């Protein structure tokens, strides 16, 4: 009975470890595709800082057991990026996708609709 309990607990920790790695990987790839000036405009450190922090979080979550201080720090860093930094970057970039464009619009759209050149 104890063996089954430990196996179940190890499986649960494995799932948590995979989730933390996915969280760090998502943050890392998202930060990699954001523009450097958006980080400065949002006043959220800089791009290189977040790339290093999120890469370390991914490495630590891969190498170490989930029970420890380093994976917890990595998880907190990933969550801070996703919950605080990412929305600020999206707001500075115009609220659109990664490239600052809104879906469905054209490049000639203004804030109140299409720009027709004053015709």
Automatic annotation (TrEMBL):
Start and end residues of each stretch annotated as Disordered: 91-119
Q: Which UniProt keywords apply?
A: Membrane, Transmembrane, Transmembrane helix
From the record, give the transmembrane residue ranges: 6-29, 50-83
Pfam families per the UniProt record, alphabetical = DUF2516 (PF10724)
- Start-end of Low complexity biased regions: 105-119
Q: What is this protein called?
A: DUF2516 family protein
User: Which source organism does the UniProt entry give?
Assistant: Streptomyces similanensis
Q: What is the lineage of its organism?
A: Bacteria, Bacillati, Actinomycetota, Actinomycetes, Kitasatosporales
